[in-house]
Specification:
Elements lengths: L3 H8 L13 H11 L2 H4 L2 H4 L6 H5 L4 H21 L4 H9 L8 H43 L4 H11 L6 H19 L1 H12 L5
Helix pairs in contact: 6-8
Length: 205
Amino acid sequence: MISAKLIKDLEKHGFELEFPGYASNEEKIIDILKEKNERLYLAIPLLLKQDFDYKKITGRLNRAEIYDFNKIISITNKIFNYEKIDNSNIKKIINNNHIKGYINKNEFQYYYNAFKQFTEKEEKIIEEHQQEQLNIRNNLTTNKALSKIFSPAKIRIMGDIFAHEKLTNTELKYYYKAIKPLIDALLNEGLQKYLNIIKETKKYR
């Protein structure tokens, strides 16, 4: 097995390995339980926010693994109660399979703290993804608007300026001669008011 430490370090250099994904939530949970790693077990409550087939999972586990899984289910149910997360599916599984067990206070706190931490990270990742998508849409809209006013050569030079790229002497001369006057005109307050009046005024044939 390839060292996780090595993979993480190589990623810093831009090197990535493609790994197969999981076909189901159940497969992920089974693999985590098979690792018998308490640190990995902390991820299971996050996965239990999705629907899962209890019988399908336990059918692939030994007695000790089922015991650990049942304990995590009980802890997750309590976490969901605290966080007001819908736990109707978990309660149904607990009742139907007669899952019982004492939840150690320190152990619960350990899982609860991790769940809060991971959830915050998950929300941040989702927020960053949404912002990235918004930026892409804004860039597409901006580029479309620019293309109606500026030529591709002008847009390229403005893109270099926006990215703080150094221009050649020829590009600088072209900027001051052909691009800057257009920008000054577009930013002119009087022109903007004039164009807004034209835009908002009703047209008659």
